[in-house]
User: Fold DUF393 domain-containing protein from Bacillus aerolatus.
Amino acid sequence: MNTIILFDGECNFCDSSVQFIIKRDPKGKFYFASLQSDTGKSLLKKHRVPADVDSIIVIEGDKVYSRSAAALRISRHLKGAWKLLYVLILVPSPIRNAAYDFIAKNRYNWFGKRDSCMLPSPSVRKRFI
Assistant:
């Protein structure tokens, strides 16, 4: 089963994260759409994700994950030692999400923001929906 990652297409940190994931996902498990795209908006609506959610979203079949749970779901499928981060799922979600929210709240200040989504290279374009 392929997994869809919805990300903030205007966020430089999020763009870098998508590039990081692509490099460590040689089997092509992950597909991507920006939260701002028509596809992203449609998927959010289909899965009843509240409009005010400011998080990366992972959709695996009928299950939807956000915030730290989404990040950890991604890490468990990456090649290399990154999958070991999934052990952090044992940390209570309020603690994990507090750390996630701190980074999310400051991501534009720390990493910047762009006016539009990045254009993927032709070799990875097929993974963007």
